[in-house]
What we know:
This protein has 450 residues and is α+β, with helices and mostly antiparallel strands. It has 15 helices and eleven strands. The radius of gyration is 35 Å and the shape is elongated.
Amino acid sequence: ASPLRPQIKMGTQNNEGLMPKLSQFRITKRTVDALPTDKDATYRDDKLKGFAVRVKPSGSKTYLVIYRNKEGRTRSLALGQHGALTAEKARKEAEKALGAISSGLDPSEERQLERKAQTVADLCAAYIKAARAGNILGRRGSPKKASTLATDIGRINRHIIPLLGKRKVRDLTTADINKFVRDVAAGKTAVDVKTGPRGRAIVEGGQGAATRTVGLLGGILSFAISEGIIMANPCRGVRKYAPKHRHVRFEANDYAALGEALRASEGAGEPWQTVTAFRLLSLTGCRLGEVAKLRWADVDLTGSALRLSDSKTGRSIRPLGSAAVSLLRSLDQTGDYVFPAVRAKGAPYGGFPKAWRRILSRAVVPPESVLNGLTPHGLRHGFASTAGDLGMSEITIAGLLGHASATVTARYVHSIDATLIAAADRVASRIAAHMDSTEETATIVPIRRA
């Protein structure tokens, strides 16, 4: 007898009475109940070709469909356990499956693929692993920075996984992504949780968060395409909310109020790191992270420049005006960081965000002042607006702020010219004069070769 058709002799006794010969075996509740469970065996139905039941020594009896796919390989599709699934219901399911097989489908393979299909949470985990290994490239074809990846992980954990984590990647549609954008914008992922003894995560959602997160999701799904998980990106064509840029324009009285608040904070015992750092931000237009982690190795006082080994746009050179140079010369230059931590040795100061709120609280300004609700990044906007007021071109302002240049030549230029240093000096002198409430005086900037 075939191993798939064990021979059962007429007259074998069991609790159900006589078993029919295999050639006459029809799968019914009675006949399946009567099948012996002393060994692993498969019994096929005598009427519906491919319909079978498998018995195991454990006592389990499973309804199957046994068939050959279009490649000629023998496959089996489990329909369900006897008891949980009746014999008649199993027969109907088998008929449906055999009909699909006759049209060229392979239900067993499809079921395996469905089980192995990655969820969005699985894909995000693979993306993070690849990014940590340096295999996800960001701007200028370089691996993502640790700070950028930390931001990405926060958006993944706070927005993407709560809303889409359990969804299969291959099942995502553009309609799903559009709904995701609307849900984040509506605040469905808003949460306020403690992340440690002194940590707290406040997630509010909103249109800005929705736009930035769907941009990240599009990158993750592009990674899925490169891995062969999907063929098309469902984020393509998704409507995003227009970014709401805040236009910050400083007037003389705004800088005067800021200067007074810095002096009041210094008198109130504010750490020197915070007062000096925010004054340096005002005089240079740098980003907060660039000043907060500034190392003396990146400061070129002789060449009147900051030569940042790592910034948002990679390596960057920033011209310094004489007011900024004088401020830096007044500091102790023996340590590694320009603004060292108060207690931790060899680490940068880390309390700038809270310190900024304390300093602004001391600013005496009218309700319409730009200082109300201003973030440290607003000082960068203020520097740019002051340069604009002085009649400087967009290219000059871009050079002062260290914006990434699209030209090939700029990648090979490692110095800054006299014009740019003079421009930085004009802007810094104007801002310093406003902050100190003094008259601006012209200064001659000596140009030294780096």
